[in-house]
Amino acid sequence: MKLENFAQRRYDHEAGWRINPDAGDDAPERKFPYVDNGTDRIDPARYHDPGVARREWERLWTRVWLVAGRASDIPNRGDWFKFDIGKESVIVVRTGTEPGDIRAFYNVCHHRGNRLVMADFGHGEHFTCAFHSWQWNIDGSLNRITDRDTFRDELIRDDPPLAPVRCGQWGGFVFVNLDPAPAQGLTEFLGSLPAQLAPFRFEDMVVVKDVQTWWPANWKTALDAFLESYHVHSIHSEILPFYDDYYQQWDLLENGMSRMLMEFATVSPRVADQETVNDGLKMMLADAGMDPDGFAGTAGEVRKAIQRHKVPALKAEGRWGDGLVENQATDDWAYFIFPNVTLNIHPEGFLFQRFRPDPKDPEGFVYDVQVILHPVEKAAPPVYMGVEDGTDCSGRTRPERRHIRHGEPGLGFVLDQDSMLVPVVQQGLHSRAFRGMRFSEQEQRLRHFHKELDRYLAGEK
Ligand code: FES
Ligand SMILES: [Fe+2]
To answer: Is 132 in the pocket of ligand 1 (CB under 6 A)?
Structure first.
């Protein structure tokens, strides 16, 4: 039905598209009410002005909950990881054996300001400064001031503990907040996200791929590109044979968050041939463990056929969480965790992307790409997760973080295409002729994000 009508389509911005028109009000695929964020155009200075970057530092990054990393990366007491945000650095450490025994501290020595740790990950009972070897225990208490007798007592009688950073956990993520008294607790901040995403059981998942890179663009220039699929027909057109880039469900959630439900294993309505089981669909069938040459149906029947095949298989392997719906076996559920994380979620796991500002350059950002999966011994993750053949997905080994330069391949085909695009957009934003973004309703998640950012920058949050 929807495909025949593509030429005459009329989008109703309040009703939106629905990925499953039969979904009830409580169903996971329910349509959330439209949020009217107006039609203001975003000032391009937001993407390069150092004054805006400073305000973001003072009013956003130092006040909001941020995904610092994964609890599964620090499974044992004494394990820690480092999380850098802007000009700050935080150590996140496991201090005991209970799931809640994770604490966070500023990564700075109270003697003369040296960083305490330099590596991304580590393990130990203490943090020892490399400069004059002051030492702290993993609970943050001071263990040693070297040659203590040479300090006048008033300088050190407080036995300075490491400065704590607020932290909390959800879904296997460790969040930190640099604000000592955050306006919202983590639970309030996340709103309905934990309930919506509970069936995926994120907390059981492990990191199987971890890449870090730096791109010459503002963090928002890149993030914006991952909050919409409007550019897919133009930049990533080779996925149109098996991906519906138009009929998607865009839902705006609390606190600037949002989601986008997208059909895989479906031909885009922009493709003329809607009948033939094309090579892309054949690839999807084969990837799901089916015989593409033995498939007797039409292109329009592939998605449901894959779902019928995959659900029991995933159930048998214990990878199908209670409360998932059949469409999730094929589809991509893309969520945005304000202010800087996107997740592309499938029953097997998700693609994690995080966008962090370069503290020295508003036109640079640190880009983290991770694949986080339910551990499996043999089965390979779906091809669209971008995990290289031969990757250990058992959870027994945590892959090294790979650092790649901008422009080097390694992120996966689609993201490599974005890596060429985003810095060029960044250049265009400087043009005197460009007066600000005009967002379509396909880009409503961008507007929702920027409105929430406005509230932070105005000091309302
Ligand atoms: S700066 Fe850390 S011990 Fe001196
Ligand atoms: Fe893209």
So the answer is: yes
**For 460, which DSSP code?**
-
227 CB under 6 A from ligand 1? no
Name the residue type at position 460.
E
Rounded to an integer, what distance in angstroms lies between the CA atom of residue 243 and that of residue 292? 17
Q: For the structural domain made of 6-53+192-457, what CATH number should be given?
A: 3.90.380.10
Contact 207, 70 (CB under 8 A): yes
Supply 168's token pair: 């909390």
CATH number assigned to the domain covering 66-181:
2.102.10.10
- The strand pair at 135-137 and 126-128 is best described as antiparallel
Q: What is the mean pLDDT of residues 405-429?
A: 92
Residue 411, pLDDT score: 86
Nearest ligand atom owner, CA of 413: 2
Residue bearing tokens 């704590």: 164
User: Which residue is it, tokens 């799901």?
Assistant: 288
136 lines ligand 1 (CB under 6 A): no
Is pLDDT at 202 greater than 80 in this prediction?
yes
Check whether 1 has a pLDDT greater than 60.
no
pLDDT beyond 60 at 57: yes
Mean pLDDT across the chain: 96
Domain boundaries, the chain: 6-53+192-457, 66-181
Residue nearest to atom 1 of ligand 1 (CA): 112
| Residue 444: both structure tokens together | 């409503």
The closest alpha carbon to 115, from 139, 83, 147, 70, belongs to 83
Percent of the chain with pLDDT strictly greater than 90: 93
